[in-house]
Design brief:
The complex is a heterodimer of chains A (334) and B (538). Chain A is mainly α and 334 residues long. Chain A is globular and about 85 Å long. Chain B is α+β, with helices and mostly antiparallel strands and 538 residues long. Helix content of chain B is 34%, strand content 20%. In chain B, a hairpin with a 3-residue loop joins strand 10 and strand 11. In chain B, helix 9 packs antiparallel against helix 11 and helix 15 packs antiparallel against helix 16. Chain B is globular, with a radius of gyration of 27 Å. Classes of the chains: A mainly alpha (334), B alpha+beta (538). At the A-B interface, helix 2, helix 3, helix 5, helix 7 and helix 9 of A face helix 1, helix 4, strand 12, helix 7 and helix 13 of B.
Chain lengths: 334, 538
């Protein structure tokens, strides 16, 4: 097991290295350069040249690439060309904002999605099954930005139940310690702020959860249907076991592996930042951070931001792979 | 039995859902209640503190105005820092600022400023002549760190400001190496605000995150990509100002979401709305529409080095072919006027006698025939992002495409990501492209020379238009101190530009903002940086 983990972690290195190279080359292949953006439209040619030299952007690409790599190995992710702050320092609040939202959304997606899938499989071809699967189909197809704006219009502008956008009430700002606001407000015993933060998570959380929720529901349903037809489930039923126990205890355990895979992939995707949701709900997350950096051609931020997101994505999938062994003892890694 | 189980499950789900909703609903009422009381506690005695939440499209890059070029940075810094001279409330006339009076020598090479006395920076440092001199020296010390200083005060390799000396505590003398007609207008621009020398001498880079000026508001905090908070400077040198206790600038990137936030009452002012939102704002009894005086131009550039636009007759034909009034009516909701010159009428030196090109497809066809246009398809570039001067590039391009087709010019609409679009256009890769400009300092030079002189090919002159006769006029105007003579030079220049037709000037738009009705005295400035010292909340 440890051996397996070690091997997987070693495999990470070439994957991440290859990725840094591809990202590095891609962002330099597109036209537009950071100096022009920093200096603005009225920049003189002299100023552009001077800044190019002082940022080291006039050096050949391989020199730039290797000095960037050397920095990464020393834990230096570069300095943002736009804000002049170290990326490693700047990125954490964005990551925390995205993680808080993504985890909240995944909890909604998993709880609702898995249960909807199970019930649909349990009562296959019932009205619940039909409605759940139609909702799931709509869920994967609906554009997130449209859903987000509709939520805002209905639940904020019209009904006034939830705040429209943002992570906190700016009139009553949160003193940030961990940058996870739910945690920060609890540490400080500010339960009013805790409720406020929770309420602000609902609309973007639901918008973000829609697609994973629908995917999870569909996978759970088809996986459950397969298991429910197997011999051991019939045996369990035959010996008089309660249907609820059969479904949730015996069948689910065997049906959950593909569901877990999907959950892992979706969590990774959400943690990579959801640009549309973050934009509509003014969420200061990692997706918008990297997206803005692309517009500004802020090379260090794009490179290191994508590197970190990729690392998280791979780590989550590693955790999922390890979870398989917990759920299914037949799976062993050597 | 199967049905019964399902029924129970359904009921359970409903129960759970309703509990969640009830919890949310309950906390909602409690929360608004506590909000009112908690804000009341901040300033005991003087009633409820006045907090203005300002919604805008993007975050600031840095809060040190000397090192940035983006409008969102200046939006904030204009309220933390002050400049030696100010623009007028809603125009670009020159008014006293940190300097209460000034005098220029006859040759235009020496400016003597008398400074306000008793002004302090937010860190307690005294504002005086020495502080001014130190700021100018700081900007002069590098050619690439202070972009606006380089573009406004360095000509070629030469520093326009030769020296700045403090004579006593409150008199400061600027010596110029050559006369600069828009010198005072330049000094009034947000990037040339005076920062505390104590602050930048201790930590220059630190000023970007911890701004220290003399302005009506002091910096409090900045959560990147989210909000910037500033609060009342109690020691502000003008009594009774500012009216507000706190201003919070929130970044809400999506236009519709920003309007949703405004109608829901989460923000008090929404900046950068699109003309199509006008109806929604006017239909809401709680909102007021605020118009920003126009100081921009949206245009269709015709790259003069690329056929068929290397022929002046084809360029003139395109000018006749486009129905500007129809564009203004359709895409600007009437919040614009059709343009005939490359700069708006508010700028002094505007030539109203230029007749421009009225919509006349027949004349366009005749000119095309005369030019021997071969019917080759052109590329028409549509801006991918909305800007005040071009609210919807794609739709404007489609309308122009139809206009061109009517006179026999076939075109294909293309678009690129914004930074790519600018760079490719700058390299002269576009046939015809949509673009625009918002004035920095309200001077004719900032439009005409910046956008149409041969010197600026490769930076802001995207059409590669280069007319030596025009260049002579521009250079003469830059050093001409007599306002009337100078205006005359610009008027001549506009006649030449109109004949050469490197552009189709399309419109001068009036950008709009919206605010809650309880916000009073909000005055939008044409430069886009609004001072909030007089703004109040009822």
């Amino acid at each position: 097991m440890l051996h397996y983990m070690g091997r997987r972690l070693l495999q990470l290195i070439p994957v991440l290295l290859g990725m840094t190279f591809i990202v590095f080359m891609l962002i330099r292949a597109i036209p537009g350069n950071p100096v022009q953006v920093i200096l603005g439209q009225q920049a003189t040619k002299e100023a552009v040249e001077a800044l190019n030299a002082s940022l080291g952007l006039d050096k050949p690409w391989y020199t730039q690439y290797f000095s960037y790599l050397a920095g990464i190995f020393q834990g230096d992710m570069g300095v943002s060309l736009r804000t002049k702050l170290p990326v490693s320092e700047e990125i954490f609040p964005y990551l925390a904002a995205t993680a808080e939202l993504a985890l909240f959304a995944m909890i909604i997606a998993i709880v609702v999605g898995v249960n909807a899938g199970i019930i649909s499989a349990w009562f296959q071809n019932s009205w619940f099954d039909y409605i759940a699967m139609i909702v799931a189909l709509v869920g994967v197809s609906v554009p997130v930005f449209w859903l987000g704006l509709m939520e805002q219009w209905a639940f904020s502008s019209q009904l006034g139940w939830f705040p429209t956008s943002g992570r906190e009430d700016v009139r009553d700002p949160i003193t940030s310690i961990t940058h996870f606001y739910l945690l920060d407000t609890l540490i400080q015993g500010r339960f009013d702020q805790f409720i406020e933060v929770l309420k602000r998570l609902v609309l973007p959380g639901v918008a973000l959860a829609t697609i994973p929720m629908a995917i999870i529901a569909r996978i759970t349903r088809s996986s459950m249907l397969e298991v429910m037809r197997s011999d051991y489930v019939r045996t369990a039923r035959a010996k008089g076991q309660k249907m609820f126990i059969v479904v949730y205890k015996h069948a689910l355990k065997n049906a959950v592996i593909p569901v877990l895979t999907v959950i892992g992939l979706q969590t990774g995707l959400l943690l990579g930042g959801a640009i549309l949701t973050e934009t509509i709900f003014s969420w200061p997350g990692i997706g918008r951070y990297i997206y803005d950096a692309i517009g500004f051609r802020d090379y260090p931020v794009i490179q290191s931001g994508i590197l970190i997101v990729a690392f998280i994505f791979i780590m989550i999938n590693l955790i999922v792979d390890l979870l398989y062994t917990v759920i299914d003892p037949r799976i062993k890694y050597k | 039995m199967k049905k019964k189980k399902l029924w129970t499950l359904g009921v359970m789900l409903l129960l759970i859902l309703s509990t969640i909703l009830a919890a949310c609903g309950g906390s909602d009422t409690k929360d608004t209640g506590s909000k009112d009381t908690s804000t009341g506690g901040d300033t005991a005695g003087s009633g409820e503190p006045k907090i203005l939440v300002y919604g805008r499209g993007g975050d600031s890059v840095a809060l040190d105005p000397a090192v940035v070029t983006d409008g969102e940075s200046f939006t904030v810094t204009a309220n933390i820092y002050e400049t030696l001279v100010n623009f007028g409330e809603q125009d670009v006339t020159i008014q006293p600022g940190l300097a209460k009076s000034w005098e220029a020598s006859e040759d235009g090479l020496t400016y003597t400023f008398q400074l306000q006395e008793g002004v302090k920076f937010h860190d307690g440092t005294d504002f005086n002549a020495e502080a001014v001199a130190k700021n100018i020296e700081r900007w002069k010390s590098s050619t690439d760190k202070y972009p606006y200083f380089s573009s406004q005060f360095i000509v070629g390799d030469k520093q326009v400001i030769e020296s700045v000396t403090a004579e006593g505590d409150y008199t400061v003398v600027f010596k110029l190496s050559q006369p600069q007609a828009p010198f005072l207008k330049n000094l009034a621009m947000s990037p040339f605000a005076i920062a505390s020398p104590t602050a930048f001498e201790a930590d220059e880079e630190g000023l970007s995150a911890n701004p220290v000026g003399t302005g009506p508001f002091k910096f409090v905090s900045w959560v990147r990509n989210d909000s910037v908070t500033i609060e009342k400077n109690p020691d502000y040198y003008i009594d009774g100002y500012p009216k507000l206790d706190k201003v919070i600038y929130r970044s809400i990137p999506d236009n519709s979401a920003r309007l949703n936030d405004l109608t829901a009452g989460n923000i008090d002012v929404a900046d950068g709305l699109s003309p199509s939102d006008k109806g929604t704002i006017e239909g809401d009894a709680n909102l007021q529409l605020i118009e920003r005086p126009s100081m921009n131009v949206g245009y269709l550039g015709l790259t003069v080095t690329r056929p068929p636009f290397d022929n002046v007759k084809v360029r003139q034909a395109v000018n006749y072919a486009i129905d500007k009034q129809a564009l203004v009516d359709a895409f600007y909701e009437g919040l614009a006027e059709p343009a005939k010159n490359p700069m708006p009428p508010v700028i002094s030196g505007y030539n109203d006698e230029v007749t421009g090109y009225t919509y006349d497809p027949e004349k366009a066809k005749a000119l095309l025939a005369e030019a021997g246009y071969d019917g080759k398809e052109i590329e028409l570039w549509a801006m991918p992002v909305p800007r005040p001067y071009m609210p919807d590039g794609q739709k404007v391009a489609e309308a122009i495409q139809k206009n061109l087709e009517d006179v026999g010019i076939k075109s294909k609409i293309v678009s690129f990501e914004w930074a790519t679009y600018l760079e490719k256009a700058q390299n002269g890769e576009a046939d015809a492209f949509l673009l625009g400009w918002t004035g920095d300092n309200g001077d004719a030079d900032n439009f005409l020379y910046t956008l149409l002189d041969g010197d600026n090919i490769g930076s802001n002159n995207y059409t590669f238009y280069d007319n030596p006769e025009l260049h002579k006029l521009f250079v003469a105007a830059q050093t001409e101190i007599d306002e009337d003579k100078r205006n005359e030079l610009y008027k001549q220049a506009q006649v030449i530009i109109s004949e050469d037709a490197p552009w189709v000037p399309l419109a001068h738009s009036t950008p709009i903002l919206a605010a809650n009705k309880k916000v009073t005295n909000y005055i939008a400035h044409p430069t886009g940086s609004d001072r909030l010292d007089a703004v109040d909340i009822q």
